[in-house]
Here is the input.
Amino acid sequence: MGPLVGYARVSTEQHALEQQLSVLKEAGCEEVFGEKVSSTVPNHKRHQLQAALSALTLGDTLVVSKLDRLGRTQAQMVARLATLQAQGLYVKTLDWLLDTASLGKLAPLVVGLLPGLAEVERNLVQERTRESVEHRR
Here is the structure.
């Protein structure tokens, strides 16, 4: 496993970017990138995310405080994880939800299951929306 590269993002001025940056440095990240940008901004326009991804080389680990730093929706996060995995990179969250390096050979399985979970989530949201609309009628 290679070096750790950290990425932090907050969406509003009220949130403290410095706190995430500090935690990433304490976690051992050699390079840390951070930005204040809304989650609605597309990933390709998140310049510090792009810089963090560019700093990664085969075997490196991208470290984030929480998985939602990698995308606005679960589908975006799953796509990002799959892309990083295909590039021979690892992802670790500081909330201990995910550490693909420690999963070893199970990492493809876990990342492969995430799209199914994303689909279940989408279906639940659609069902709740339909129920809400029917209830309002």
In short: The longest strand covers residues 4-10. The radius of gyration is 16 Å. The chain has five helices and four strands.
